[in-house]
Structures are given as C-alpha cells and as structure tokens.
Amino acid sequence: MSEVCCEVAPAVAEAEGKKKGAAECDAGSAAARRRRMEIRRLRLAAERDGAEETSRKRRKVVVEEEASTDEESSVEIEPARFGVTSVCGRRRDMEDAVSIQPDLLPGHHFFGVFDGHGCSHVATSCGERMHEIVAEEARTSSASNSDDADHWTRVMERSFARMDAEAVSSRTTISAATPAPTCRCELQLPKCDHVGSTAVVAVLGPRHLIISNCGDSRAVLCRGGAAVPLSADHKPDRPDELARIQAAGGRVIFWDGARVFGVLAMSRAIGDSYLKPYVVADPEVRVLERRDGEDEFLILASDGLWDVVSNEVACNVVRACVRGAGRRRRRGEGRASPTSNLSPTQSSGSGSGSGSGSSSGEEAGNDCVGGSGSGAGSESDEEIGEVDRACAEASILLTKLAIARQSSDNVSVVVVNLRRRRPEILTRPLDPRTDPPS
Amino acid sequence: MTATSRPQHAAHANGTLAPPTDGAETFAKFFECWILQQSRDLDALRAAAAASPEDDAALRRLVDRVLGHYEHYYRAKSAAASDDVLPMFAPSWISATETLYLWCGGWRPTAALQLLYSKSGAQLEAQLPAFLDGGDLHDGDLGGLSADQLQAADQLQRRTIRSEREIDEAAASAQESLATVKMVELSAGGGAAEEGMEREMDAKAEGMRRVLEMADGLRMDTLRAVVALLRPAQAVHFLVAAAELHLSVHDFGRRKDEAK
Fold it and tell me: pLDDT-derived band of residue A8, with 50, 70 and 90 as boundaries?
C-alpha cells in the first residue's frame, strides 16, 4: 500500500538530512521518511475504507499537498525498482559489494557495484561511503540546472577522487573510527596498498541516467530491444588506456592477460595506491537522457557475470523474465514462479516506496540474493509489480547463469527497471488481457 | 563395480548396515559394503528422479534414508578412528586418485556446494534455450533454485568456508605439535625413550583424531544442510550427483590402480 502512494507523490527531499551533518544524514532522513510514510499509510487506509474509486483520485491530491509542505521541489518522484543478487559463487572470498540507495537525492536513486581485489575492504568502504560522498558533492555543487551533464560529470569525478583518497588513507581513518575490520588482510601493512576495487555507479534521475565507471565492472542498458553498453571496461590493453599508462611511464605486461606491471588486470581502480599514477581512479562518466518507451532495464554487474554472459544474452534473459511474468499473470498463476520466492527480509529493505531506511544498501552490500525493490502491491498493482518482480528474478537468473558457466569470481547483479509507472496506470482498473510492455 | 568384489556379508536384508568391529581391515570391508549400499541408493534415487509427478512425502523418505546411510558411515568411521586413527589418514580402501582430493581425512566440505552449483548450472543451461524462446522455467530440478535457496546456499558456503579454515587451524596446531621441546628431547634420546615416545605420539594422534572428528562432522553437517535447503525432488537430484561423482571417481581410481 505504501508503495502505491509513493507512485503519485511528488519529490520528498531529505530536507532534514540536508541540515544535519553528513554522518547523521542517513539516519535522519530515513527516519523522517518513515514518519512521512506512516502518515500516508494511515490516510490511505482511511480512504480505502470509503468509496474506492473516488478515493483513488483524491489520494493523489492529498499526498501532493502533504509532500509539498515537506519540500518545495517539484521533481516527480519515482520509486527505485530493481532486483539485486550478490553471491560468493565459486570463490572462497567475497570481495564484491553492492550499494543501493533509493532516493539518495530528491528523485534520484543510487546503484553501485564494487568488485574488490586483494581484499574486500576497499570494496566494502565504497559500498558504505560512495553514495554519501556523491550526495554531499551533488548538494554542495547544486546548481540551478541540476540535471546538467557537466554538473553531474563534475560531481562524479570529484566523488570518485574523494572515494579513492579515503580508500588509500583508510588504514588510519578506519582503524581510528571503527572497530577492527573483519576482512582477510585486516588492513595490515604493507599489503593494504595492494588492495583496490572497481566501481560502477548509476544515478537514476527523473530525466537523466548517469553512469560512472572505473575498472572492469559494467553497466548495460536494454533500450528498444538492443543491449547498449554504457561503460567501457578499463583494461590495460585498451588502446587509449595503454597509451595513458605508457605516457605516465608505466608498463603493461602480459601475464595471464594484460596487466599493469604484470600485476593488475585493470587500468583504473579505487585504491591500489602502489600502482599510482598508472592505475587511476578517474571515472568515465556518461549522462544519458532517458527515453520513455524505449528504455527497458539497466544491468550493473561485476565481471563475475560479464566474463561468462554477453551483454545481449543478459538483456535477453531479463526480457524473458518479464515475458514469463506476464504469461504467468495472464494464466492466473500470480507469483508461482520458480524464482519469485523472494526473501522477505531483502525485499522489504529496499525501494523508496516501502518507506524503509537507507540501511538497505548496507544489507545489500553484505549478502543479498534476490532482493526486490518493490514488493507486490495491491491487486491493481499486479501488472506493474510483476515487472519489478521480474527484475528480481532476472538478477537471480543471471547470477545462476554465471555460476552455471563456471564463473570463477563473485557474482553481483543489479537489474533496474527503467519503465516509468504513469499515474494513470494506477487509477486504471486492472485489465487481465493487457499485455505487459515488452 | 570393480571395487566391490568382496562378499557383502555385512549388509542386512533391510538395507541397513551392521556396525563394524575393530581395525582397519574391518573398516575396509565395511567401506566396500557401504559402496554397494551407495550404488543401490543411487539406483533408487535415479528412479525417483525419473518418475514424475512425485509424491513429496515418498521422496522425503527416500532422501532421509540415503542421508541415514551417510550418517551410518560417519558413525562407523568415528568408531574405527577411536580404535586407531592412523589408517583413517592413510586409507587403504580408496584409490590413489581419491587421495589427491583428501582434506583432513575425507572429501572437502565446500565441494558439496560446488557440486550443487555445477548440477544446478547444468540443469539451468538445459532449460535456458526454451526459456529464452518464450517457455517457462520449471522448478522440478536444481535449475529452478529460488532466491531463498540461492541465498541459503550462499550463506552455507560462506559458513562452510569459515569452518574449513577453523579446522585447518586446528590441524595446523595438531601437526605443528610434533616438533615440541619434549619431542626434540625424546627423539635425541634413542631407544631409552621408547616408552615416552609412545605416550607422546599417542597424545598427538589423539589431536589428529579430534581434527578428523571435526572434519567428518563438518562433512555430514554440510551434506545435511545442502539437502535441507532443497525441496525433496531437488534433493534427489543433488544426492544423485553426489553418489555419481563419488562412485565414478572411486571406480576410475581403482581401474588406474589396477592398471599399474
């Protein structure tokens, strides 16, 4: 129910979070949001008791009024709708981290996949900190044209640089501020210099999709039936990367693939201070205009997936999951699908619509399988919810496929639903004959 | 089966196995009877996997019976190890090939998870073309692992890796204890130290027996936990894969050994 009301609510900004310090930001805004959600739920429940159809129309008005007192922003909010799966797979150490932060900024959701190497702690701190840094940078440089491509490029470049600086200095800062790390290397010298992480980050705004990448994790957009890679893997033998490394005085040696100084099989990474300046943390940033009607899904994944599953197959699998969900609904089977058995703890922890706290990203970073950004809503939500469930199913299926194909790495997959829910869909009575958008 | 030429005198008609008596010789005999039991179990499991639609309760009984046979194996092994642990770390009843894959006196527990992933992967790949063509995935086998099951497997794997590492540490301590000051003195003392040596080595072997006990415990726990996260029909597929892998590697190794 809470999910439904959020569909039509205008932006609810983290007004309280803005005023507080960065450390309190998450807790404050999450609590505030939860309170607001509770108020809305109560109103909705009250209205449902009354006349159904009229209340549906009124509902929007009520929520809008309420939200506008919270925040002056007029950006239309859209809940984060995604599936996420992150498993150890066939490796003995888990070095991937995933961070999903619905409503990180008004109307903007944050998705990040970080694939660590050497140890897990740089990836872990990326999972814990990157979104906070991005939020800070976006707020401090907040221009009037907040969707501007240059603005976002600057924000992401600065964020990656700060994240890298934190990762490199994490030995001192982390040990002072937090309890003993649980990772393998336990931040011992000098190994710690040999630890790093990829970072592929997507910020999904109302009109734009911002992809920032550093390393060999990848973002792929399913758009109009095609698989469009939105990031180019930073491999040391990529001609421009090779030229950059050599210009800096570095060497790329083929030793089980192309490696910087025969060591690191990627040319950019967060951390890895001993390979600076040859391995850099500068992201490549792309700012895309969203195309409604064409944009289907965004897939973010570590190379545990991409090593064994092509961009095209991945997109086909997601589409097949959506088609399958539509077929099952038309047959009246509802949720009875092999992979629809979503873990309740995971699915409840995410999605702005559920009004849950922003700790979801941390949960996701630790261990999660098949978390869904949006659980099943009311019956009128069936068709919409099924696409969201299909995203969760797709993230599971892609992960299983990677494991099936003997991927030797950890596997982390995030599937983000890019189809917009239009308010009219919510008020339209459910027509079981209607095909899902495909 | 090349490995099972001896008479199966220890197997009762009802399918349960007689407890072994003393010594490595006896355990070797027990093992061969157990191998026979496992191949009978495999036949039953294969038949159940092929038959559909399944009766979950009947499948559950079959799965429990097969698990019971594994438990019986580890009870027998434990009893034999308390009698004499030495043969358990130099087993005569397995082939040279199999000794390559021993971890603390048996199979590596995380191999059960790898086996689950491999069998599940093969069954998923078999379904994938039809699924991409617009068909449905069916969940009758391991190709249809749900989100909860994948999560449970992932958690189990991480837990099992941690337990393996703990046991590795215990094994390290037990093995490093060979080179204590006492042992240096005893080993320098010649024949006069015979009795002291006996006492010391007994104590150290007891340390290794405890390692074996922990490792066998983890093996059985992992097997049980994998089965527990599966539905009965899926568990049947997993137990088929486990028995097939064990029996075929055992057979392969025996043939290799005989060819020498």
Answer: very low
Question: Mutate which of B119, B136, B234 to test chain A, going by most A C-beta atoms within 10 A?
Answer: B136
Burial of B176 (0-12, 13-18, 19+ CB in 10 A): exposed
Asked if A317 lies within 8 A of B134 by C-beta distance, the reply is: no
By DSSP bridging, strand A252-254 and strand A258-260 are antiparallel
Chain A 378-407, CB below 8 Å of chain B: which residues? 392-393, 396-397, 399-401, 403-406
Query: Which phi-psi region, left, alpha or beta, contains residue A238 (left: φ > 0; alpha: ψ -120 to 50)?
Result: beta
What residue in A sits closest to B111 (Cα-Cα)?
A90
d(CA B79, CA B71): 12
ipTM of the complex: 0.85
Chain A contacts of B230, Cβ < 8 Å?
A: none
What is the C-alpha separation between A326 and B147, in angstroms, rounded?
19
Asked whether A97 and A129 are in contact (CB, 8 A), the reply is no
What CA–CA distance (Å, rounded) separates A33 from A175?
A: 32
CA dihedral A271, A277, A283, A284 (to 10 degrees): -150
**Chain B neighbors of A327, CB-CB under 8 A:** 136
Using the predicted structure, report yes or no on whether residue B152 has a pLDDT greater than 80. Answer: yes
Min mean pLDDT across A60-74, A191-205, B116-130, B210-224 is at A60-74
Q: How far apart are CA A164 and CA A159, in angstroms?
A: 8
CA distances from A77 to A73, A249, A360 (A): 10, 48, 19
Cβ atoms of A411 and A85 within 8 Å: the answer is yes
* 3 state SS of A21: coil
**CB distance A338–B128 less than 8 Å?**
no
Kindly determine whether residue B147 and residue A370, on different chains, have CB atoms separated by under 8 Å.
yes
Q: Which are the contacts of A214, defined by CB distance < 8 A and separation ≥ 6?
A: A160, A198, A199, A200, A234, A268, A269, A270, A281, A282, A283, A284
User: For the segment A187-224, what is each residue's pLDDT rounded down to a tens digit?
Assistant: 554 456 789 999 999 999 998 999 999 999 999 999 99
- Least Cα separation, residue B161 to chain A (angstroms): 7
Nearest CA in chain A to B121: A404
B226 touches chain A (CB under 8 A): no
User: Which one of A92, A367, A393 has the shortest CB-CB distance to B154?
Assistant: A367
Long-range Cβ pairs for the range A178-185 (8 Å, 24+) = A181/A121, A183/A119, A183/A120, A183/A121, A183/A124, A184/A93, A184/A119, A184/A120, A185/A118, A185/A119, A185/A121
Q: Which residue of A has its CA nearest to B144?
A: A338
Query: What's the CA gap between B44 and B109, in Å, rounded?
Result: 24
Q: What percent of chain A has pLDDT over 90?
A: 47
Distance from CA of B175 to the nearest CA of A (A): 24
CB atoms B147 and A405 under 8 Å:
no
CB atoms within 10 A of CB A279: 28
CA-closest candidate to residue A214, choices A157, A273, A288, A297: A157
Read off the pTM.
0.78
Q: Which of B121, B139, B151 lies nearest to residue A369, judging by beta carbons?
A: B151
Tell me the C-alpha distance between B6 and A131, whole Å: 67
